Fold each of these.
Amino acid sequence: MTKLIAVLAGDGIGPEVTAEAVRVLQATGLDLAFEEAPVGGQGYRQTGRPLPPETLALARRADAVLFGAVGDPEFDALERRLRPEAAILGIRREMATFANLRPAKLFKGLEDASALRPEVAGAIDLLIVRELNGDVYFGEKGFRTSPAGHRQGYDVMSYDEAEVRRIAAVGFDAARRRRGKLCSVDKANVLETSQLWRDVVSAMAAEYPDVELTHLYVDNAAMQLVRDPGQFDVIVTGNLFGDILSDQASMCVGSIGLLPSASLDANGKGMYEPIHGSAPDIAGQGKANPCAAILSAAMLLRFSLGEGEAADRIEAAVARAIAGGARTGDLGGTLSTTAMADAVLREM
Ligand code: NAD
Ligand code: IPM
Ligand code: MN
């Protein structure tokens, strides 16, 4: 039966890298149908809303969502609910994709592209499990007047224990399937939200005697990630810390243009997107690295369509293309977005 993939390409380099990911999906020979819909700044321009209801309906109806990126400096002054970013936050919440998996592994041949020493970078094979539906992102927020009469901005950070439990379970399960190590990252020395997080995760350890659980404060975790990233197997953390640590992890393996992600709901339905944004500084120039989008498409096949073999083929093709010297500008090379995808396609 034909599987329907909703393609929400969005802004900036979103459409450029998503087009290449679609090309790679088509090359698998699987029975896939693609339907596009506007989102982000593109959605706002066309309909006055960053997440048009028809786009959300398509995302719900589809077997999986392939997402590009949203964000456009042109819209940064709009009220928050109309900005492009409202689309991605809205769709994550509406689809209840609470579990964001962000793997980072060094590709052979990219030791020189990492911001770290080759022998340090070479040890990287980690998975960041980022909570995606809660935290300070979704708490009450606004502007008010402080007691001293100053304009004040505020954003409430909170997690309830059910939210922590369900994401921690994803982290424990992932560790169980990998090398058996789970590191929970929080800021429990300062934040009550984090204290609750740590209490809940600690209490769950008894259900996973085969997983070695450790805790780090987020500041230390950021430091350890560049000091000795090979120590990490699975990292589980909240929405904000996971956002920051995953961009950091990307440079440890060479480029933000390499890291894919899967955002899954409780039933395995998902949205798939690179961890990077719309990159306005290089948009429209055919320079963006499409690998993060292509690897996101591989995750889509594996997690939402049960096509693990095709996913393996795509991932192996990306690895071979890179090992063979294919490089976009972010990796110190000269290939265009399309030429990089061509190199991957040749290896499939
Ligand atoms: P960004 O990730 O878009 O770009 C950061 C830097 O990395 C830029 O120098 C960019 O050129 C480079 N880069 C990113 N992706 C690349 C790729 N595939 N190949 C080569 N280089 C790449 O982050 P930013 O500049 O902070 O944000 C730009 C816009 O994107 C903002 O509006 C932001 O809100 C939005 N954003 C969206 C998402 C998303 O849709 N998931 C994620 C992050 C940022
Ligand atoms: C990401 C992005 C988003 C986030 C923004 C654009 C809302 O940075 O997907 O990593 O913070 O989650
Ligand atoms: Mn981010």
Amino acid sequence: MFDNLSEKLDKALHVLKGHGSITEVNVAETLKEVRRALLDADVNFKIAKEFTNTVKEKALGQNVLTTLQPGQLMVKLVKDELTELMGGDAEGINLSGNPSIILMSGLQGSGKTTFSGKLANFLKTKKAKKPLLVACDVYRPAAINQLHVVGDQIGVEVFSDEGNKNPVQIAQNAIAHAKQNGHNVVIIDTAGRLAVDEEMMNEISNVYKAVDPQETLFVVDAMTGQDAVNTAKAFNDRLNFDGVVLTKLDGDTRGGAAISIKSVVNKPIKFIGTGEKMDAIDVFYPNRMADRILGMGDVVSLVERAQEQYDEEEARKIQKKIAKNQFGFDDFLSQIQQIKKMGSMKDLVGMIPGAGKALKDVDIDDDSFKHIEAMIHSMTIEERTNPSVINASRKKRIGKGSGTSVQEVNQLLKQFNQMSKMMKMMQGGGGKKMMQMMGK
Ligand code: GDP
């Protein structure tokens, strides 16, 4: 996420971080670089300029040149300002209605339907809600179908009325249906267009007036940079929405939209979409995003995700197995599956401070576990529980069965042995032994 911007900001601030003597000249030079990095990330010119001016004022106000660690202070000022620009505090969504009505708006292709599904899934699994998804796109049967596919995937009911060409009526019928069937959240997916047009705006504002939503969200593709900001402005002028959803932040997004949108429309970013799958949704926290942009990682989110997936009973079971030397490939597999549930590898690595930068040229492939899983699946139960029986001919068979090579099987066995050894040492409080092994 925002790799390019992170890298450029890091370079810009590098001078200050490293050098003892900092002069007014190199502060100015640094800020110029920061501004350039923001512009390259497609941040609006005016916002970029104001940003660096504010940082400069604050730096001078705090006598940055005479502090002990001027570099650190500058980084902090930039971080604080970035956080502020993206909205300050995180804002939740209003779920006070019964049912709470959430209206989705945005252009076609922005990711509206996908996000409607993600939000329904999020509210169902994390907030114990019973959502109803509503297909209000009366122009594209494929869109209605798509919502049904999404609904089936996450086990959420979808309300649609294929013959009806009146979105206001569909929405009203859906709300009546929700009340009758105990749905406490109604998520209305509306029709989008390829560009902002009057008819679409009229249609969505009619739905808005008729259903009086607690929350109107505007969905926008972050990859479109400045266009995203302009579209947001056009929608906000007509719809006065409550919050923004930025999708496709997993791609090669430059970051401009995330940084500029709040200050242009004065509405908070509430959620981000980070993938095509139903669980690729995150609450937007401006301070955590600022940390990530500045390459400081996002340990809080990482720990949260780990906690969500942490299964205490499973952990205890594994611990016992390690102590008894019974940790096998099946356990290894279940560990891998837990890690995978935490999100895409690239996303996770980006949350580790410094790792994004260190690994920026490494191709982190979400399929990297696939080979490992295939090899384990090609093992017999005996081989999984007691890997020491895996001899040359078994290696050959496993390689063949999993579409990998003997070398890959060897590598997996080596990694597995190393990991088992390390786990055993950590169990025995053997920090010292481990240090010895690492040659310290
Ligand atoms: P709609 O026309 O606004 O309803 O857009 P869709 O929900 O159909 O999404 C358009 C395309 O974007 C689809 O191919 C989605 O799979 C994809 N998409 C949606 N959200 C994300 C996201 O957060 N990341 C990525 N990589 N793709 C997404």
